[in-house]
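Intended use. Records such as the DUF58 domain-containing protein entry shown here are meant for training and evaluating sequence-to-structure methods. They are not intended to support clinical decisions.
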Amino acid sequence: MKKLINLFYTNLFLTGRFFLALSACSVFFLFAFFFPWLGIIPELTFWLLVLLILVDALMLYRVRTAVFAKRHAPERLSNSDDNELGIYIENRYPFTISAGIIDEIPVQFQKRDVWFKTTLKAGEHKLISYSLRPVKRGEYEFGSIRVFARSPIGLLSRRHNFEQAETLPVYPSFLQMRKYELMAISNRLNEFGIKKIRRLGQSREFEQIKTYVAGDDPRSINWKASARHGTLMTNSYTDEKSQQVYCIIDKSRVMKMPFEGLSLLDYAINASLVLSNVALLKQDKAGLITVAEKTGSVLQADRKHAQINKILEVLYKEKTRYLETNMEALYSTIRNVVKQRSLLVFFTNYESLPALQRHLPFLKRIARHHLLLVVFFENTELKHVTEQPANDVESIYVKTIAEKFAYDKRLIVKELAANGIQSILSTPKNLTVTTINKYLELKARQKI
C-alpha cells in the first residue's frame, strides 16, 4: 500500500492551469475583505476547485496502463547524418488526453529540450518522428520514455514511465555510403558533383572476340580470327578490374582538429568508407591501413561482398592518437602488405611546409612502387579570416598570418607535384566528392 501511495505522489504533477485556478481563488478571498456582498462565493469557488482536482485525479488514475509508448530506433546510427527515430504512443483512456513526451536521449547530444506535445483521442495512436545527428563514433545510451498525460480538465498531470534503456552504436557514415552506392548503380553520381571523366585511350583488359559491326574501331579487328571464321571479327575490351585501392588513414594528433562538430579523422573515415564502396562497385579491390605513432589496423585489399562490412567494423573502432605519425612504420607496412602496384589514398593533414618535408622522404619512397594520392585539408576558418576586411593593426596582423598559412597549403601541393606525387587539397565538407572524382579520373586515365 505504501509503495502504491509513493508511486501515486511521485508520478503526480501540478499543471499551470492548477496554479491559475488557485490564484483566482486567492483573489476571490482577497476581494471578500473589501466587498462583503461576495458572501460565500470565494468558499464555493475553492471547494469547486477541490472537487475538480479529485475528479481529475480519478480520471487519470482509474486506468492502470492508460498510455503505451515505445521508441522506434534503427539498430545503429550513422555518424554525421540525420538519423530518423520515432516514438509510438497509444491512448487507452476513454477520453481525449493532452500528452507531453520526454525521450531520454544520450548525453553526447547535450540536448535537454527533447519534448514533444500531442493530443490523442480515445483509442488513438500516433508515431512522432524526430532526427538526431551524432558527430562522434561509439556507443550511445538511450534512457526511458516519460509521458505526461492530462485529462480535458487539465489541473493535474500523470507521468507514465516506460523503461526502454538501449545502447546503439554509431558507425561511420553508412547512410552517405548507401546514397552514393545507389547513385553509382543508377549512373547518377553527377547529381552529387561527381564529374564524368572522358576515357583516354583504350583499356588494356581483353574481354572477348565478337563479330564486327559498323561503328567498331577498325584497329581492334582480329585478322587471325577473321580468317578462321570467314567474317570480320574484332577484339572487345573492358575496363580493367581487380586493381587494388588502399585507404591509408592518419589518426595522429593532426587529425584531431574539428570542423562543424566533426574531427578531421571522422571526415577521412567517412570518405574512406564511400571510396572503398565505389571501388568495389567498379570491381576493384578495397583495402585499409591506419597509422599513428605505430601501425594500427591493416585490412588487405579484397573484392568480396563482405569486404565493405569488414571495413566498416574496423573504422568504427578507430580513435585519434596524440603523437606524431610514424612514417617509417607506415612504409614498412606498405612494403610487407601491398605486393602489387596499387592506388594508395593517404588521408592526413599538413599545416606547414616543414611538416611535409619531414614526411617527404618516405612519401617519395612509397611513390616509387605505387600510385600515391595524398589528401589533406583546407583550413576553412582561416579562409574566412582572409576574406574579411582588415580595419585595424591587429586585424591586419591576423589576416597576414592567415594568408601565410593558406599560401603554405598551396606550396605543399606544388612540392608534392614536383616529386611526382598526386595530391588533393579539399575542404572537409567536399572531401568525399573530391576524392571520388580523383579516383575516377586516375582510373579513366589508366594511372593505376
